[in-house]
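re: ur question from earlier - yeah i can do the single chain one, its not a big deal. heres the input i used so u can compare w yours
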Amino acid sequence: MLRTNTRAQSVQIGAILLFGVLVILFSSWQAFGIPDQNKDVEFNHNQDVQQQMMELRTTINSMPDASVTRSVTLDLGVRYPSRTIFRNPPPSTGTVRTVDTDEEKYAINITGNPVDENLAQLWNKTGTRYNTGAIRYSPRYNEYQNPPQTIYEHSVVFNKFQREDTSLAISEQSIVQGDRITLIFLNGSLSETRVGSTSVDLQPISTQTRTVAIEPKDGNVTLDIPTRMAIMEWRTLLGDNHDVTKLANITGETDPFASDEKIRTIRVRVDANRNGGVRDSYRLQLAKVGVGADATQSKPAYLTKVGQSDDQVSVNSTYEFTIEVRNKYNKPQTGVTVNATALQGQIKTKTKTTGPNGQAAFQYDPSEVGTTRINISITDGYTPDSSHDPQSPENMTLAVDVQPEQAGGATTSVGDGSISYYNETPQDTISVPNGIWRNITCTDQLLLSDGRPASKPNANNLQGDVIRLTSRLNNSTGDGYTIDIKLARATDGSWNKKKVIIYDGNGNNQNAELRDPAAERIYEDGESDILELSNYDKSQGSSWSKLLKDIRALEDDSPVVWQTSRMTGRVTVALECDPPPAPPASGVSDVDGTTPSDESSALQFDIQVASGSTKIITDINITTPGNQNSNVESSWKLKRPGSDQVRLTLTNTNDGNQSGGRNGNIKFDGTKYQLKTNAVFSDGAVLGVDMRKIENGNVKLNYNLVDSKSNADVIVTFYFQNDTQFQAYLRVTNVNS
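and the output i got, formated as tokens:
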């Protein structure tokens, strides 16, 4: 009997079962593995976008000093990795858009008393609400469920989780820092939804604004801030010095967003819980930044007088005054017509147009002794009659006290001191205790000379021949410094004390020791500049250098007042302008200089000598005035370990030409550094200047050469053997650190 053979059927069934298992495995991986991988891709993308939103915050925070549009790139959507067998869902998209910039009620309200009278009148007339908005990123992922919306709002970036209705700040706040309040308002409309990247352009509508002083009103400066972030997050960010309360919880107050579950208004009482009570005043800076389309410009809003409030002149003199026109964000306005008329005497030119700094200068010749009024206005169709309203922020009235004729017309007695009207000459000095010195327009140099010490054994820890000078420098914007100079020398010439202590407006102090030669010049009919870094014993670090630089820059905002509160012995004080630099060395010019790459920690450019002449560079210095980009001042030294900090390189060293350079750190504070090897170049030779590793390469710049000192952010000065010098000017467009 024959048996049936079934072995071939078993193989076929096994193959079918194996294929089925493979299909199940592939299907499972497509259903579960691929989504998990894509979820990881989406999560990582979300983390990247959060970092880009942090970059957006950094750029917005830098806008108060900006003069050009700045941009930040956001990668809105995500594409998945290519797969050979398995399938991906379509790329996910994301949306970035402005929110509430068109909402009148979405505004920050400021409560305080401006020190400037016309700004106070503006606030009384138009209110203190400043419209603003937020920027929100919303992803639309395929797998990552409940991703946060990432929002920039009022200097903070935070994640908003819709399902849990919670928020988490991922940055700090920069609205309140000590006595400084900075508010940046967003304006315009932006909405972009895409897979790829988009550029968020930030337009400087009202930037480079004036910082103004405000004082508490009813005991506090307060900010009412509409927000989507939880109140507890704000309390954490602002700290214990500030009281944060929901507006709806304050008796008699109504939150305009009471019916909106997503937004509430918080009231921040600035420094409400500060030990020792609130501050007397705060520095307030406002800025308006455009985002996207439909951003609106701001109109001229009020006048202010540049300089001190005292208006006094002798009948035989000319009274000069300067008016500044600003918008509601305190930005100086260019091209505005200003009219001025005096009720007695004569204004030399009654109508002026404001220049690039928003200012118009006038001259008034009085005709009789007494008090006269000068009416000033920017109102269209203005006529100087009884309709002039001095309470309008667009108008101003100056009451000028015209004194009898005085010989010289420069000095009058006030109390125990004296007033000298500074006219930018080295002859104006003061040496009277408790003296007041007004209308100082230069603080580049603080010169001490003609010292006559007094004997004070052991008094105030000062032993021997003592000079002690304590004084205060203030300008009208609230910036001020107390300078305490202690000098004491024994009869054998040794020094017991030669210290300078400087206190800022918050009472914080720094000190440094004068070098012996600098102290000796004050005692021995010489002269020393207290604001010159090289007069101090050793490097005091960037903080002391910056402090001296800030004092030298005081008069950039408004004229300064000096008051002497203590003087032991006698010393003559002179506040002077820096002398003009020597003219450029004949025949030397800069020929090339731009950022070596997209951004660089190197400063590189070329200079060339004319045919037929030879130049020998012996010394160099670098300063960072930050005339166009104040952020460049964060760069303060060159540091290239183990190598030359400055290289001066010639491609052809024949015929006596020689490359040069210097090793050792070089600070950007104007200190003059001698080269290790002099650079010699002649007869049309080009010298390549290479300065690398700004702060060890931690700071990178974008820059190019310009031909104007006023446009320069970095100035490099070359000193030649024949006592001439040449300056190269670089303008910085971006700083990253």
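The mean pLDDT is 82. not sure if urs matches, ping me
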